[in-house]
Amino acid sequence: MIAASRGVTLKSLAMELSRKTGQDYSYNSLLGKLNRESLSLKEAQIIAQILNYKLEFKDQYNAL
Q1: Would you give the DSSP letter of residue 24?
Q2: CB neighbours of 40 closer than 8 A, spacing ≥ 6?
Q3: Which of 5, 12, 50, 58 is packed most tightly, with the most Cβ within 10 A?
Q4: pTM (predicted TM-score)
Q5: What is the DSSP letter of 7?
Q6: Average pLDDT, the chain
Q7: Residue-range domain boundaries for the chain
Q8: What is the pLDDT of residues 31-43, one digit of tens each?
């Protein structure tokens, strides 16, 4: 959903993820990881970077 809002297809996201990691990602493998909810934290961080987002952890009890 975030990728689509940035005008990025899953196919192009998979290609950029492959370029940045040196691992082979395809549209189908990325879609499978998303559907199975098996994306690693490192993969999520790289995807966020590609889409110009950042991941951050916030304390849900002490949020101001």
Answers
A1: -
A2: none
A3: 50
A4: 0.82
A5: T
A6: 90
A7: 2-50
A8: 999 999 999 999 9
